[in-house]
Known about the structure:
This protein is mainly α. It has helices spanning 14-40, 70-75, 93-113, and strands spanning 55-59, 62-65.
Amino acid sequence: MSSFNVDFAVDIKTAYLQGRYEKLLEQAQNFLDSEVIRQSRPFVPFVQGMLANTVVIEQPGRVVYVQPYARRQYYGDSFTFTKTFHPDAGARWIDRAKAAFLPEWKAGVESILRGGNR
């Protein structure tokens, strides 16, 4: 049995591709960050709205609830959650939203990365 090698070169305009995919990745991350915030909201403890209304995207992929008590509420340390305004409120609200909406989040990200708008 014999073998042979073929040498070839491909000229790809990498700057165009890099710019295009960076833009798509940025759009996908923005979509995901905003959906995490939006779809987690019904799970966030809510009495006066301070916690739910002071969430920020600190950097892409990092959602931060800025109230000083947010960490304790998130992990549920010694809290009884009021259900008056958010009946589904409770600890680990992002984890709970992820369990409910992950397929939607994935579909949205995939759509954007394929070049579709969301």
